[in-house]
Amino acid sequence: MSDDRFLAGRHALVTGSTSGIGLGIARALAQRGCALTLNGFGDANDIARLVAELAEISGAATAHHGADMRDPVQIEAMMRGAADERGPVNVLVNNAGIQHVAPIDQFPVDRWDAILAVNLSSSFHTLRLALPSMVASKWGRVVNVASAHALRASPYKSAYVAAKHGVAGLTKTAALEVAETGITVNAIAPGYVETPLVTGQVADTAKARGITEEEVLRDVMLLAQPTRRLVAIEEVAELAVFLCSDAAASITGAVLPVDGGWTAK
Ligand code: NAD
Q: pLDDT tens-digit profile of 11-38?
């Protein structure tokens, strides 16, 4: 991309951007000069430091909204507040996500409901609220952070796999609905990326499978991934940036793996 600041004047909202992939995407977008709305949980001082850091990088208005992505009312308040304060959202990145690993007959019902709400339904709510202004301005970019689990299943991840397959379906449907309006809607499907979400599930997977944590990394996670290494956050973030560029205007409705060859199998 020739113009490093090609998103100057745009406003990007990234859900779940206080950590991991979402923070990586927010940083990469900030480097392209856009205003930002961050979202996600965390220590108030840490979040204030992040907001200041990203504002410094972008040179544009940056703020955080702590909406809980399980709650449509809070999502509506965030979308309205973000647009009122920093202008219509031009780039929407649906990234917030949680995980729980357990066999179906032992899967806690409240975990199922929370995973479906955060990993799938929140994207429907942000989309329905962001699309009208994107359509009005004849430009928009939606990037949904799905997973290789949008394309493949693994045992003990029923809610996550169901939600991520749902994200793929939502992505394709939305892309078709707005195909003639200058808006693209895509999903990125990462394999295992080195983030707190992955480190946190190593212990649970070890318990569910009756193996050690070292065996989970070597024989479960990196076994799935032919490159035998975790994906770097930047490798996901730079694809998100590319999808926001004019060069990607004909890429829509796609579910793009960044998975070290996992889904080639
Ligand atoms: P992470 O745990 O590092 O970050 C998750 C972010 O979501 C945090 O900012 C957290 O505060 C936020 N969040 C969680 N629940 C929330 C809620 N109810 N409301 C608002 N924010 C909430 O995780 P990550 O690994 O960076 O994952 C980000 C996305 O990438 C998720 O959708 C995940 O499914 C997907 N993904 C991750 C991997 C991986 O290997 N790490 C692989 C494929 C897909």
A: 999 999 999 999 999 999 999 999 999 9
Nearest CA to ligand 1 atom 12: 16
| Residue 160 known to be catalytic | yes
Q: How high is the mean pLDDT in each 10-residue block of the chain (265 residues)?
A: 84 98 98 98 98 98 98 98 98 97 97 98 99 98 98 97 99 98 98 85 87 88 89 97 98 98 96
Nearest CA among 89, 185, 90 for reference residue 145 = 185
Rounded distance from Cα 180 to ligand 1 centre (Å): 31
> Where does ligand 1 bind, in terms of residues with CB under 6 Å?
16-22, 39-42, 68-70, 95-98, 118-119, 145, 147, 190, 192-193, 195-198
User: Which domains are present in the chain?
Assistant: 11-191+232-249 (3.40.50.720), 192-230 (no CATH)
How far is CA 257 from each of CA 143, 146, 168, 170, 261, rounded to the nearest angstrom? 13, 9, 12, 17, 8
Q: How far is the CA of 66 from the centre of ligand 1 (A)?
A: 14
Q: What is d(CA 36, CA 58) in angstroms, rounded to the nearest whole number?
A: 9
* Burial (Cβ within 10 Å: 0-12, 13-18, ≥19) of residue 50: buried
Q: According to the model, what pLDDT value does residue 261 have? A: 97
Ligand 1 center to 9 CA (angstroms):
27
Return the beta strands (E) in the chain as ranges. 11-14, 35-39, 62-65, 91-94, 140-145, 183-190, 255-258
Whole-structure pTM value: 0.95
